Each structure stands twice: as structure tokens, then as C-alpha cells.
Amino acid sequence: MGHTRLEWLSVLLIVAPLTVVHALSLRPRAIPGPSQDQRVLGSQQSAGIHTQSTTLVDLLSADADFSLLLRLVQRARLVPTLNALNGSTFFAPTNDAIKRIQNQTARHPFKLDTPVDNIQAELRATLLYHLLNYTLNDTANANDQVEMHETMLIPSRKAGQGRPGSPGMGDGHDDQLDTRDQYEDDYGWLAGQGQKLFIAPSKTTDKPSPLLVGVSAQGAGGVTSGISRSATNGNLVPLDGVLDPPRNLSQQIVDHPDLAQFRALFGTDELNKRMNHTHLTLFAPSDKAWDALDEYEKRYLASGFAQDDLEKILQHHLSSSKQIGYYAKVKNETLLPTRSGASLALVVNNGVPEVNGSALVDYDILAQNGVMHIVDTLLLPPEDSFTLTPEKYLIALNATRFVALLRSAELSKHVQSSNASMTILAVRDDVLERWESGWDRTLPAQGTRALTEALQYHLVPGKWTSKDLADGMLLPTLLEPDSLDHAPQLITISVSQSESEPASLFSKPKPEKPTDLGFNTASVIASPVVVGNSIIYLISQMLEAPPNVIETAVSDLRLSTFVASVFAADLDKKLKKQPALTFLAPDNDAFRRLGLVMSYLLLPTSRRELVSTLSYHAVRELVYEEDFQPGSNEYMTLEGSGIYIGKNDTGALQIHGPTLSGFRVNGDTRDAHLLESNILTKTGVLHVTDHVVLPPTVSISIDKLMRGGKASTMAELLRLTNLTWVADGSPPPDEASAAMLRKKLNKAPFRRRSYTVLCPTDKAFTALNLTYYLGDIPALTELMKLHIIPSDPPSRSSIAEPRHGFPSGRLPLELADSAVYDTLLSEDDPKSSGRVALRRFAEDSWLVGVDGARGEQGRKDWARILSWGKATPVFATSDDASTGEHDASIQRSRMSFGGGVLLIDSVLLPYRPTFWHKFGWIIVVVILAIIGLTCVGLLAWKLWSSQRAEAYIVLENEED
Asked: Which residues form the FAS1 domain (predicted)?
């Protein structure tokens, strides 16, 4: 029945204008303004239907107060329609109401000065909105309730009101705007329903009580009606105002005062696209609903990067079902399927309208293409509840460029789930912009592996809160480069507690300042944000992966000698590319303590040994400080030999080379220790040590030390005196001498002696008359032997206790103030003055001189020690061993502790005392003894004489 009426009305709306056009074409055009001709025209046109009746048009024509309305009806060519209606209600604005429209500046279809066209779509729609297809009797709204009525306005494209579009997101649905929908063509924007109108009783006490027409669903506003007038085909209800048809849903959103945030989030242009669709029911979240979100959720939604989530929210608040969800039509419950696939239950709960348990704060806001309700909560099903992922929080934190970079590198999967456990080190857009404006700072190009690796270095597996972090900690990242053999690159944590200001006597203690947290060189600039199982730290700059070991060492002034040595050995290219390397880099003081050993290693002819020494400090695996275990553990080095590293009982790290019965094969008397650990590099990690550990493959002899000290003159003189066996570590060539030495050392028959050479520089020999000595080989031999100190292996206790004031562990013999040492000269002639003595005269400054010298030869009997060098221990061959026992004392007797060289600035001359120096003290003692005896004798004689004289004293008044 409803469809039959609708089809009949549709035919009538199409045919009636054509009839009017034909009639008007046969007579002059009507003159504006009310006239008898117009009233007659209405009567004549209606006579064909009801010859003896009074139609609605007749009522308009008969009352001058409706002349302007009749004029508009004629302009819209609706006279045949009004005459054809039966049992309708026409809300007729009076002339005063229409005149008020003329005074408005806004465009309105009731303005009489509007240019006349042949369609007048807006005017027709507005007039039809004043018509009900049934008679509203005087008992309407007798229950004092706001009632919803259906008008004869059926919004549609046919009415010239535009083709509805799709509520989809953005331009991706523009193709739908050009696609004809037969249902929309046939049934319009309200699924074939007429536009709704709310009518409420007036609050006045007038009888009969006037109606308020066009009120809101709550009864606000509206136009006051007059006394209804009856016609044959309906009722005419005067109005003191004009009823405007509801506008499009997007415009209703724009005009509603409680939807400011809704408008801001979606934008006017987007709302026009999304809401320009047919038969919509919108449950619009109010500002209060958005305010219920936390700060970061609101930031995210307003960021411009939340299209997907905004679409998700909108689709669940929007129904495009052909059953429009008017609350006024709800009896018990109405289920509305949303565009998200879920359903919303519109119910009446104790007179309160609700949807899914949430109250409607405003409802039945009519629109051209549907209806809108206002809710104070976001309507989302539990399974699709709006939760922020780390990526969304990053956007809310203004790290949108960082998010875009993650997406371009296909790393966003690590930040798009709250269930994933991840520590994210992010950079805000403004910080990234400032960082890029710095010197020589650019991000790698998008799509490159370099960009992917740079971003992987900002993602740390696991949720590491500030309480979990400690100063010096290392955290693995997602970056697993080839340079580390696909082991994770680490980040160094720095934690420092800001000092609180002290409280005065008159003030309260101030709270403790927060902890300063940093990752590598970047500081944390905001409080961390926890998102599910992940946590976000905003940092002050982009993190850069560590550079290679050479670049790392160059930036550390403590390692300048190490860097110079690497370049001298031409190892820089190899070390830059060697993957998964742990480098034990000695500092400058460690190299300085090598003395002449370092001078020798830097010689061009010693490059192979320098390479071996440096390579011995490179471990072929990644070992961070916490990875070292207690005890002594062997690690293979780049040199090929093993180095021993472990922790002692106190947890301190000790580094040394191979040992034999507790003694270090390279002759070191101390272990290396860490000065700084866990300095990250591109290829591994670098630890700074305080000692250079010589590999077992590098042997340092006295000859090499003299070459390092550029003491070629001393080396040549040793050759001339057949003492080269001292320099190269060979046993003495004279078997008799060897037998004599063994006899003297009968407690250790297999002991190998070592020698320390007091080596004058070449410049020192320029002050010596070498011509004389070269002509007197015995004198030259005596001179050389004075500069050679035999040294026996010290006890283990003595080598474990380095002295203060000199580089421990690298001296060829123990330096002690006033210490006296025998030389080969004193061993040949014990009665000679061939021993040397040491004297410390300043910090790390020592003098050596001939013991017993009286100084008549001036400076020639002492010299300053300029440098030093220790030779590698020499072990006895298997032929020398008798029992093969490995007792420590036997092993000590089978090895020479190497000796070494003390470089001095002057040549020491043998001291030969004069006769006076030999016997002068005896003469002085004898003379002093004689003088003493003489004095004693004189004193004794004087005393005796005095006593004798006293025996003959004559007493006074006595006789003789």
C-alpha cells in the first residue's frame, strides 16, 4: 500500500508541472503579488477534481495573508499538486514570516528576488517540507509529547538536491560518485521515506493551544502555528515562520556546538565526502567523548597520521542501513548494523535513550540524508577497542618522521603491536631537523641498507625501564651487521643522578632530582612512555652506529701512540675490516713503559715484530667485560697465539701471555689491567689497558734494544772486544769462563745468566778519546766490562712487588736508591773499583755511577739514565736439562730473565784511586793517633806535676 502511494505521488510530481507549463503557455504569465486571477486560477484548476469544494489553494487565494506563499507555490508549479492532494496538512507561512526572509542576507529559496528558473528544486523541496500527507487534527500532541511526523519531501537526486556520494576515506572512493545506484534513484536519500518534522505543543495556556512546528527532538525552537483551517482536501495551518528542510549530515556536524573535536579530527572537506551518502544514522562522539581519551591518544588522532583509526572509529559510529535509526520510532530495541560490520542497539531505558549502554545526550538531529545522535562515549566493540600501539604513541609524541622512516625501511612491524616487547629510542621531528642541520649530518637515502641499519640501531629487544638500567650497561639492538658476524650491535647506557641542592636551616629539603639517562652520546629528553610491553625513550639526537676501531682510537688522546703504531705497521685497513674483533689497546703510558723495546719495534726493519705485537692484542671473538670469566682463560688472537685473560678474586681483570711454572714467558713481571672497557666499535669492542703484552713469537735481545736506542757505537765496540755474546744472549764462548760461572753458582748448575748493558749513546762517545781505546784493546775491554752488569733471576716475590717511581715490569734490573751492582769488570778483579751504584735524584730520574769514585774525574764517573729496555728471557735447551723436572726453582735456573739495556748519556770510565785515596786515611789516622797520644801524655804530666806541688805547701803560723 505504501509503495502504491509513493509510486502515485512520484507520477503526480512529474506530470503536474508539465500540466501547469502547458496551461501557462496558453495565457499571459502571472504578475507577482496576490490577485484575484491567481485565486481564480487555483479554483479553476481544482474544479476538475472537486467542482463544489474548497481546496488548500482556495484557502490561500481567499486570504491576503498568504499572498506571498501563493506566489511561491505558483513559482514552484505546485498548484496542481496541492489540488490533487486529499487529506493533507499544509503548514502555511504568513506574509510576515516570508517578509522576514526577504530581510535576511543569506540565500533562501523563499526570497522573491531569486532568479526564476524552470526547476525551482530548492523552493519545491522547501514547500513540500511544509506538507504532511495526512490531516493533522486538533487533538494532535494531546499528550504533550514531541511527535515526529513525515513530510511529503522525499530528498533525492531527482529533486535536484545532488547525487549522494560514498562515506569512504578520501579520494579512494571517488569512482563511486559517478556510479548510478538504482535504489537511490528510486527511493532517494532516506530509503524512500519522507523527511521528518517534529511538532510539539506550545507551553502557552491559549485555547486552543497552538503548536510548535519544526522543533528539535527535545522540543526546543520551532515555529508557532495559528488556528487550523479546513479545506476539502486537507487542513491549512498558518505559521509565523518558515520551516527549513534539514541540511546534509556533514553540515549538521559543522553546526553542532558539541562536535568541535569531531570536526577538527576529520576536517570539513573530509566530512563532506564521508557524510554525503544515503540513509545514514550517525552516532557522533561529543567533545566530552574525545576528552575521555588520554593526552597521547588525542595527540595521535590529531596528528594527521591516524587515518586508519579515525576511519575505524567513524565506521563503527555510522550505519547506512535502509532502516534509519530514528529514536522516535524505537519501541523496545532497534539493532542498527554499522559500516564496520558490528551492530549498535538503540534502546529506551526508563525513558532515557541509549545506544549500547551509553546515553544519548542529543538525539534525532534530522539531516537531509539521515539522522544524527550525540553520545558522550566512543562506541567501539571490545574486540576492536581503540588502543594505542607504540607506533601511534610515536606519532602522538611528534616523532612522525621517525615513524615514516621505519615504514620506508619495513621496520614498522616492530612498533605496530603493543604485545611486542621492544625498547624504542625515537627522535622527535624538531630534534631530527636540528640534528640534520648540524655539520656533515645526513640521513641515508630511503630504501638503502644503510638507513635500515641506522634505524635498527634504535630498536632494542625487550622492555627496559629506567629502573632496569645501570650505568655502563650494554643493550643489544636489532642491528646485526656483517662486521660483527651477525652478532647484535650494542648500545652503551649512561646513568647519572643529578645532585640535589642542599637545604638550608630555614628551608625544607628539596626533592631529589631525576636521574639523567643516556644512550651512547644521546640524552633522554622526556619521560619514558610505556605502551603495553614496549617503552619509548625520546632522545636528543639520532644514534650513530659505532665507527671502526681506528676512528674510535683516533678520537681518544690516550691512544695516540697505539694509532701511530697501527699506521706504522700498515694494519689500519685490516683492522677496519676484520669482523667480530676484541681489541686490547694499550694507552700511551703503556707504550712509554716499553722504552727501547718500543723504539726498536718502530724501526722499519722491525715491522713484522710490530705487526705481531699489535695483532697479539686483537682477540678473534667478541668479548665484553662482563663476558670474561674468573681464572685465566685462553683467547686466540689475530697474531695466532693465545692470550690469557681472567678475573681475580676481587673481580679485577688480568691480562698476560703464556706462563711457565708461574713465570711469564715474555719476561713481564706484572699483568695488564683495564683502564676502560666496552668501547664499542663497528667491528667489535675495544678495551683500554695499561700494559703492552709482548707475544711469545717476538724475542727482544740486547742487540735489538741497542738498535732501538741508536747505540751503534756501543754495539761495534762490543764486537771489537768479543763481547757480542752479551748482546745476542749467547753463552760465554770461553768454556773455562762457563765452568767458572757454574762453579760459582753451584746451587743452580744449569743457570743461565742475563746481562744488563749500560749503553752510552753515540753522542756520549763523541766526548771520549776513542782513538786511544781503539789502540788499546785491553783498556777498551775493561771499559766495556764496566758497562755490563750480570743479573741473576729474581725470586718470585721480588718480581711481584714493583717499586714506586719507575716503570714496573719493564726494567732489566731492579732500581733501588743506593743499590750497588757488580759488573764484569768487578767480577774479573774483585779488588778493583768496578762496581756501579744507583741513585735516584728526581721522580722517575736516576743516576748511575762508579761505586767509590771520588769525583776527581768530574762528570765522567756518573751518567743519567735516559731510557731502558728489557730483553726477552732465554730458556735453556733440552741438552742442558738433566732430570727434566718442572719444579719452579729448577725452571728458574734453566732460564735467563733476559737482562736488557739502560741507555745513559755519558761513558763511565774505570775508577783508579790515587796513592792518597788509597793510603791517605791511614796516614791521617796515624797522625791523629800520635797527636792524641801526645795530648794525653801532656795532660797526664801536668796533672802529676800539680799533685806533687801540693804536697809541699807551708801552713800559716806553723813551723817548717
From this structure: 53-132, 246-379, 386-543, 546-693, 698-791
- Predicted local distance difference test score (pLDDT) of residue 668: 82
Superfamily of domain 2-153+198-239: FAS1 domain (2.30.180.10)
Q: Is beta strand 234-239 parallel, antiparallel or unpaired with respect to 88-93?
A: parallel
Residues in the chain: 960
Characterize the bridge pairing of strands 88-93 and 131-132. antiparallel
pLDDT score, position 789: 92
Indicate the average pLDDT of the chain: 81
Q: What is the pLDDT of residues 364-388, one digit of tens each?
A: 999 999 999 999 999 887 666 667 8
| Cα 842 to chain centroid, rounded | 51
Give the gyration radius of the chain's Cα atoms: 56
| H or E stretch covering 411 | none
**Domain residue ranges of the chain, discontinuous segments joined by +:** 2-153+198-239, 249-382, 390-498+513-538, 558-689, 702-904, 919-960
234 sits in the region (left: phi over 0; alpha: psi -120 to 50; else beta) called: left
Q: Report how far residue 766's alpha carbon sits from residue 771's, in angstroms, rounded to the nearest whole number.
A: 11
Joined grid coordinates for residue 931:
797527636
Confidence check: pLDDT of 426 > 70: yes
Q: How many CB atoms lie within 10 A of CB 304?
A: 12
- 543/477 Cα distance (integer angstroms): 12
Answer whether 282's CB lies under 8 Å from 339's CB.
no
Task: For domain 702-904, give the CATH number.
Answer: 2.30.180.10
Please give the angle made by the CA atoms of 947, 949 and 955, to the nearest 5 degrees: 115
Q: pLDDT for 242-269, tens place per residue?
A: 999 999 999 999 999 999 999 999 988 8
Closest alpha carbon to 335 in 348, 327, 343: 343
Contacts of 230 (CB under 8 A, 6+ apart): 236
